[in-house]
Design goal:
Largest sheet of chain A: 5 strands, mixed
Distance between the termini of chain A: 41 Å
CATH superfamily of one domain in chain C: CO dehydrogenase flavoprotein, C-terminal domain
GO molecular function (chain A): 2 iron, 2 sulfur cluster binding; metal ion binding; oxidoreductase activity
CATH topology of one domain in chain C: Enolase-like, domain 1
Pfam families (chain A): Fer2, Fer2_2
Largest sheet of chain C: 5 strands, antiparallel
Shape of chain A: globular
Number of strands of chain A: 5
Distance between the termini of chain C: 42 Å
Number of strands of chain C: 12
Structural class of chain A: alpha+beta
InterPro entries (chain A): 2Fe-2S-bd, 2Fe-2S-bd_dom_sf, 2Fe-2S_ferredoxin-like_sf, 2Fe-2S_ferredoxin-type, 2Fe2S_fd_BS, Beta-grasp_dom_sf, Diverse_Oxidoreductases
Low-confidence stretches of chain C: none
Protein name (chain A): (2Fe-2S)-binding protein
Strand content of chain A: 5-15%
Strand order of the largest sheet of chain A: 2-1-5-3-4
Keywords (chain A): 2Fe-2S, Iron, Iron-sulfur, Metal-binding, Oxidoreductase
Structural class of chain C: alpha+beta
CATH class of the largest domain in chain A: Alpha Beta
Shape of chain C: globular
CATH architecture of one domain in chain C: 2-Layer Sandwich
Oligomer: heterotrimer
Amino acid sequence: MRLNVTVNGERRQADDVWEGESLLYVLRERLGLPGSKNACEQGECGSCTVYLDDVPACSCLVAAGQAEGREVRTVEGLAEGEALDPVQQSFVDAGAVQCGFCTPGLVVAAHDLLDRVPDPSDEEIREALAGNLCRCTGYEKILDAVRTAAGAR
Amino acid sequence: MTTTESTDVTAAQGIGTSPVRPDGTMKVRGEFAYSSDLWHEDMLWGATLRSPHPYAHITGIDISAALALPGVYAVLTHTDVPGVNRYGLEHPDQPVLAEDVVRYQGEPVAIVAADHPETARRAVAKIDVGYEVLEPVTDSEAAVAGEGPELHPGGNVVRHVPIRFGEQDVTADVVVTGRYEVGMQDQAFLGPESGLAVPAEDGGVDLFVATQWLHVDQQQIVAALGLPKDKVRLTLGGVGGAFGGREDLSIQVHACLLALHTGKPVKMVYNREESFYGHVHRHPATLYYEHGADRDGRLVYVRARMYLDGGAYASTTGAVSGNAATLGVGPYSVPNVTIDCWGTYSNNPPCGAMRGFGAVQAAFAYESQMDRLARACGLDPVEVRLRNAMSEGTRLPTGQVVDSAAPVDELLTRLRAMPLPADRSGEPDLRHLPGGVSNTTHGEGVVRGVGYAVGIKNICFSEGFDDYSTARVRLEALGGEPAATVQTAACEVGQGLVTILQQIIRTELGVEQVTTLPMDTSIGSAGSSSASRQSYMTGGAVRAAALEVRAALVEHAARILGHDRGDLSVGGGKVVSRTDGVLADLVDVLGDAAFDRTVEWRHRPTESLDPETGQGNAHVQYGFAAHRAVVDVDTELGLLKVVALDCVQDVGKALNPQAVLGQIQGGSAQGLGLAVMEEIQTEGGVIRNPSFTDYLIPTVLDMPPMRIEVLELADPHAPYGLRGVGEPPTISSTPAIVAAIRAATGLALDRVPVRPEHLTGT
Amino acid sequence: MRTFSYVRAPDVETALRTIATEPNAKFLGGGTNLVDLMRENIERPDVVVDISRLPLTGIDELPGGGVRIGALVRNSSLAAHPLVRTRYPVVSQAVLGGASAQLRNMATVGGNLLQRTRCLYFYDEASACNKREPGSGCSALGGFTRNHGVLGVSDHCIAAHPSDLCVALAALDAEVEVESTRGTRRIPLTEFHHLPGSTPHVETALAPDELVTSVELPAPVTTRSRYRKVRDRASYAFALVSVAAALEVRDDTVTAARLALGGVAPKPWRATEAERVLLGAPATEESFRSAAEAELASATSQDGNDFKIELARRTIVATLRDLLTDRSAA
């Protein structure tokens, strides 16, 4: 099938999409946007988190057809050209990136949190990010990064 | 080599500072290419058929239906392996593709290449394999007793490591015994096993893969493909974490076989379930310990029997057993030691390297024992440890003398001095209580416990292994500035090695601009990214190469500037004379010259262990960390919350303080996981929880804030005095948490992970 | 995953007609369960009917104080809605304790009702499973049963129902409205899910051509309600045992009680025995314990899940105690 979806503000089209492909697969393999990751493809790790019509969703569980005509925003769409989004910059500065595989999903989830709750408490940060697994950092520096980003926005 | 010589510690962004990692921006932008992101024109997708049975004879393989599926380009079995159909890190006992027997659930039997991953999966499902199912061997202790069928020629004991130190039959006034179990933990790195094999015009193949040791992969691929080394070229694809789980081969030979057979690039990516079958896990262990001490709690002897279940293939079971045995009494001074450690074969999932590598299992046992001893002697847990603490000059049970700082007592006293979290009083924020999101108790029936543990890990490879790393450093003027390039094959797996190597160059050459070349097999081996060894070994190699470059540069500068060589140094992009100050800009002195040195660098040699007594100077260096855990337990429902997990670790020299903290925090999280939630559940050799739904790893809600103190007690034998950082925090975190739960509940808790039903006694 | 065709229903009528005429079609709401099951080859529809854009997304107050929740309301909207948070806090808590923010943004109420068990033998195609293949047996029996049921199980199936939301809905006397080309009907939530008996593959009362369109909750007996869950980590994981409870107490006597259990049965388990003991009893720990014992009296266990019986009793008592002292009703 043909899929029409707006990604990072741009109208995109993918042809010959098999119905069983996920939005994650389409983004990564057909639209040249491999930033969202495939750590589990079961909705358990959050590494595939994207904005789907303004709310964070696990793109691995979105059947391709369900994305038709909708707005998707991925990690690749957060920076403004060369300038990183404050959340991205904070992750880099705080040492919250080690292997970085969880980073795109976390950056999107944190970005959404700060949009909704500009000055979150630690508890609010933890609850909002509880759907994103990280195996390298132990989460401490991720929390540091989100706190810093909240201050910077 | 001491730390003061030849080190300009004030170099901007040099060692001792925390510059941001050079790949950080790409990673936050989603632009960093992991091995699972690779793409090639015309590429096919590979998939693997795996045995559903833990132990079976293969009576036949019929690939015809799979081959007939449109879009399928190849279906290969063991008959298609041109070279040797065996590989393995210690013993080449593992088939690339199974022949007449499968020894674990998930063992690869056939591989497929197709034009779409779904087609490849469907083709795999159409391969018809006849199995004669056999009763799986699952009992390690039975294997040691010689029971059960032989899974490999020579029997089911991969290695027996005896340690006989001091006297073997002493008695003591106070004796405490215990039987402990450590469940099978998984590395659970997020980036799936993946890579891309591209067939080359010369009949060889270029492989891009996420791994921990390019050259050892290359060796095994070369043997399996029957190709010369120069025809098998590996480049590191971006790695999404490793923790030991990428030391063994996964897609490497399979992808190359399919690429060479089809003449097209082949990409292979495991999904999460397949990942659980596709890599080795931490050895589950059963440990029997007996500690004998005088009435003041001073250890007289330790006796232990350790059984490590290595699963179907040897992997690194030998080395894991060696570590568990040699570190089996922990960071304590013990005059008389009797240890027997067995690593065995079984039809359980294959086990091998995971962060901590045998020291984790031993630590759970010996630290549990130290608490038992404390209780038996009426001492507090810190005091009993202080009375037995190892220090510089202590002899290990292998007879090896610890020849640099071993600040066990200082780690503990500093931990003890850290403030404890506030008591829960008044109206606490309920989210701080056991239960987690939207689920907390109101506080009645919640008891708090505090626990301590300290651990020891060997850093770098041991037992006489000829370990080395190769580094190339080049200095020249580029674009009007002095620029350095560093090249190694050292695998960056997320730990931040790429950052540190640049920092070393900045320090040694005083040059800001440092480029890191891709890691590949065009340069010599850097050894494994494991054993917490890379800062030491590849850092050492880069440093050595940089020093050679500097020496050549200084000689060149001396000639050009007409100064005495001994008078000159470089720093801050300048050439400086001791007597006359700044002489010139480095870029001017460089002109068109380039200084390019490659060094193969070794640590001081180690010895193998005597096969009867386990004596020998087997280790290069030790790393020490201690944790204090504070845990709240809702004893009614069995819910718990780790309220604090504080740590003191000696890192010798923090090359990048921010990265050091990241390693301590990350390692502690993995230790927390083993303590309270992580276990690969097997039933007759079958993995019952191969998903993140059922194999739970800690989330941000499970991790407490950590107070961390980093000591820098230089090891005079190591570059910059550094000690490996990555593994020690994974070792003492688990027993500290369990000790805290025991303190809260009074329960014995001899097994990790601890589950709610263990806490309620229901 | 098999090959299938994908159609999007523009309206309820078309959705109903499609499901009535296609022999092997399934509705797709949020996809958080169906997509996974299709990848596992457990669900194998020939046609997937995407209903996610149908106008079934309202949460409306009913005359009399109840609430009507459209089947396509996302979990996140449900948990956050002021009516739900104030009148049925147990529902909000159940949803918030259930899954991550990402999944809550995607999952629908209707889908939650229809989600299938997480039994690892159900998921493992090498294992015998009477749900997947009627008559093939149950590999869970005698297997690794830590996550399996202790109430309402049979020799054919001991799986547990994984939903948190359904437990809360079961406690609160929810009714499910379903539509087909043949008309509309209402099914009490407690009758919506079936016990396995000898037909574990028959999981709900829903006919193959029916669409869940809404769930209605009657006016709450009390707004003092709570959800507790025992699981293996502080964050999202399926329940070992969970309890949804509502308790009204006047003059130290229980005047109303609603109780349901999760993680312990093949369907959300309405604890009618416990409610019977509680009604009119003094609001004391002793009564709570008696009620819990009455409810679990018929429990049967395997080696691996025996702990759930006492754990379930304790979780009932703890939840009721929380409601009694109630420092955080919402």
